[in-house]
Amino acid sequence: VQLQASGGGVVQTGDSLRLSCAASGRTFSSYAMGWFRQAPGKEREFVAAISWSGGSTYYADSVKGRFTISRDNAKNTGYLQMNRMKPEDTAVYHCAAGPYAYYRLLEGKYDYWGQGTLVTVSS
């Protein structure tokens, strides 16, 4: 499975942005997937995860209530809708996937990692 994140850009505080994660390979629909981010000079941070069916999700406290993770298995694509964005959301966002329970992504458990997309939130 190959993953490619897209949709990043420069937005202002309070704006919204939707990231996409396009996957190749027929097995994506059976994998949990998630989003991570890494800001300059900081460690990688878990953002959100979703089960293979889309029925279960989990969010970091820092984005809960503002971000929504979803997926369309028919399109082999995952999404991260980001609302009410803050300057501290500025980071390179990566998607990841693997044949594990979705909450294992919180532990950094995944097999596939996509090239990131840069999100910059100006104040």
Description:
Strands 2, 4, 5, 6, 9, 10 and 11 form a seven-stranded mixed sheet that branches. It contains no helices and eleven strands. 0% of the residues lie in helices and 47% in strands. It has 123 residues and is an all-beta fold. The chain is globular and about 40 Å long. A hairpin with a 6-residue loop joins β5 and β6.
Précis, in short:
The protein is mostly beta strands and 123 residues long. It is built from no helices and 11 strands.
Characteristics of this structure?
single chain; 123 residues; mainly beta; seven-stranded mixed beta sheet; four-stranded antiparallel beta sheet; 11 strands; globular
Helix-strand pattern: EEEEEEEEEEE
Counting copies of identical and different chains, the oligomeric state is single chain
Supply Rg.
13 Å
Shape: globular
Strand percentage: over 45%
Provide the structure class: mainly beta
Secondary structure: number of strands: 11
Ends apart, CA distance between termini = 37 Å
- Largest beta-sheet details: 7 strands, mixed
Write the layout of secondary structure elements.
Blueprint: E1 3-6, E2 10-12, E3 17-23, E4 32-38, E5 45-50, E6 57-59, E7 67-72, E8 77-82, E9 91-98, E10 112-113, E11 117-122
Parallel strand pairs: 2-11
Antiparallel strand pairs: 1-3, 3-8, 4-5, 4-9, 5-6, 7-8, 9-10, 9-11
